[in-house]
Amino acid sequence: MMEYAVICAVAIVVSALTLFSGFGLGTLLMPAFALFFPINVAIGGTAVVHLVNNLFKAALVGKHANIRVVIRFAVPAAIFAALGAFVLSYISEMEPLVSYNVGDRNFEITAVKLVIAALIAIFSLLDLLPKFQELSFDERYVPLGGILSGFFGGLSGLQGALRSAFLIRAGLDKNQFIGTGVVTAVIVDISRLVIYGATFFSKHFATIGGHGESGLIVAGILSAWLGSFIGVRLLEKITIKTLQVIVGGMLLVLSVALGIGVI
Description:
The protein has helices at 2-17, 25-34, 39-61, 67-92, 111-128, 130-133, 142-156, 160-167, 174-203, 205-210, 213-234, 241-259; strands at residues 98-102, 105-109. By secondary structure, it is mostly helical. The two termini are 20 Å apart. Helix 1 (2-17) packs parallel to helix 11, helix 3 (39-61) runs antiparallel to helix 9 (174-203) and helix 4 (67-92) packs parallel to helix 7.
């Protein structure tokens, strides 16, 4: 029951926070899943919640998506999301780099933990830096944005900041920007989940089903919806700097814990 309490609480809170904290649902929810899953399965489980949540959003705002930009951005993003997912699968199978004991507990530092820890730290710092928040790229770089955000989305689930930086100057109005971002996120999620399912999800399927982890994913989905519902009604859609710094700092602490094998 502790697992359900943690996942549901985190999903509700972070789904509401994403409306104004500057961080995405995947960035904040994946660490909670990592407490109970191997890191690769945590990324995949978060991707399921992310996809279902985005499908819900797409039903509401997808009609505003600019198809031309979606094609230019989402096609390379989908291809490189699959590549990133393959890389995640590959490094997940590597033997631990270092193993050590603290008291009676054994900790392992693995390649996948180091990579994900580094990416969490980097993207957290970028989200906290004012200059990066103002970063944008010319419209001609939209396909490059798809490549970069897709690859890192497939590898770690961290993609929202890059996607926004490349779409913000694509000549879209507010509704088109939101709709295009949601539709491309759905396409990337589907692409990476296909690879996750064919690689480590299939290997961990018996474990996931046997220990009720699939129930955690469903609980995360429902809680994320509830968090969005609460957030829309109680919170203004603005960036609150103090909260953003606190969340960013917590993510940096998490990246250190993950990197040294504590998580």
